[in-house]
Task: structure prediction
Amino acid sequence: MSKTVTLKPNPKLLNANFDGYKLSSEANVTLYTQPLTEGVEKRKNSSNCYLRTRLEALHNYFFGDPFHPLCVYYFSNRGHLVKCNYSEDSRLSVGEVVWQADVSRSSEEGSEEDGAGSGQYHASVHFPSHDLAVVNNGQGSLHILETQDRTLTHSWLVSFESSTEESVIVHTCLQAGSDHKRYLHCLLLSVTTPQDLMSNPQYVIVDEKLEKSKVSAVHLIHWLTITYNGATWEISRTRTVAGKGILEYCSLDETASGLIVLCHKNYSFIGDSLQPLKKPDPPTEKKKEEAPKFTYMQNNEDVTVWMNIGSTTKKDLKVQVTAQELSVHVQDHHILFGHLSNPVQADLVTWILNDDKLELTLPKASEGVVWQGLFDSSDMHGEEVLDPQMVEEVNQRLAHLTSDLWNPNPDAEKPPYNPGQLEACDEASEDLLMIRLDGSTHNISNLGQLGPTQHLFNSRVDETKVPAFCLRHDVDGILWQPSGEDTFTHVATYNAFGYVKASKTMAKFTCAAPDISYVAVADVKSHIYVFFQPEAFGGELRNRKSGKRMNTVARQLVISMKTHSEILGLHTSPNVLFVLTDQTIYAYCLRSQ
Result:
């Protein structure tokens, strides 16, 4: 049985008096540019599958280093992994090639198929530690690179290479084991068709809904565990998870013992190299529910019991009632026996035998008391029939809580909630699920049903922790940091960002600075919107209408790029915003006012 996960916002981090963002001038932004000597590695997507197209369209060509926030990486069209960094001394550096990936298969070749699994994926890189990098070329080749000190200029060395599924990296983490070994966990994401999934003998579909699904594509999450024994790396375990629908967030938990996903449909394990899954036994036919041995109805004064006793006579029937017990015998056989849940007036009990049906009337010892059942504990299965008069009395007592009118009292101090005031951008198309899949038992250990909640973005606020995720709460965006198996801490609030994000219909990337100082939204082309946290300033503002005085202000910055090229990458670091197009790298130095 899975544990229920609930997200409880911290009231101290919510600002009910937030007065909106104030438009700031671009004069406080310093721009540095660096032309690309080689184009960005782009692959042509020939798939007509929504999940695959979405994965490709939202691919961020920039890869940040959580251990060095002012360094960014991208893959060139020649397969070079290029590093750029910003510093106060040299500003935006020229791109430095640190490694050569194998991208020999040209993106123009593509694939003749147009299904969910057709074509290649973009190359990706992640940094699980200060001296290691994991690279996936998107064509089925995974490398572990020894980077040494990444602040220095030198080529990286290949420490491990293996063939994998064509996929992209979504998360990596490095764990130290008690046996003095190092365990590198990698999560790779791909898209396939249900037909390919069912036909693969390595996979065991235990989720009946997934097996009978009629969707055109499913997500596959490949969980690789790579062990370092002091001399070499080797893949010690592979696990695979499959699921339908959009995947909003995917990460391992702190101990790498389970998988945390934010999704709209269920996800489940389908493969494990160490603990193979078994097909569940077919469900047994459910036994027909037994008819109740008796029925009863109660009012404020009496409890009336009916039961079928078969063909008998009054001479063979024996009814015994005490203040707390009821017993019915037919020819010395117990037909009904039990300890009453409430006392009765035994001397006033009456019974009638009509054909094969016995009717007993039990006067209550305490009038007005509603019995929860006829017996307090009994194997006798009975059914209560509600008294219409009693139901009407309950309805009358609750009538003040309901109304046939939309707003019966419009002059009330607190008018009722009106869902008609919601706009289309405030609605979520599907309910959001938070699932933790245990890596050992393969079961859902924790489940959070978050309802129609909008997922806004994911962010890495601490290089030693798993990524955080931001969900909409009312009009705000709340950043949740997972820790442990079932703990999710409210670490930051982006005021009114839920409403702001919903209005950005052309938004492609959303990234937040690791120090939580701002969040940026990049359109497909030309524009970037930056929203800062409230900052104190050496003065005071007064609202002309309300007269309210403020000594903090939340700035909004609109950056209009001088190019109309598509924005391919966005990376946020404290005070510096990196933007990538097909020809140039831009570094916007954001100054506080």
About this structure: The two ends are 53 Å apart (CA to CA). Confidence is low (pLDDT under 50) at residues 106-112. The CA atoms of residues 372 and 484 lie 41 Å apart. Residues 388-398 form the longest helix (11 residues).
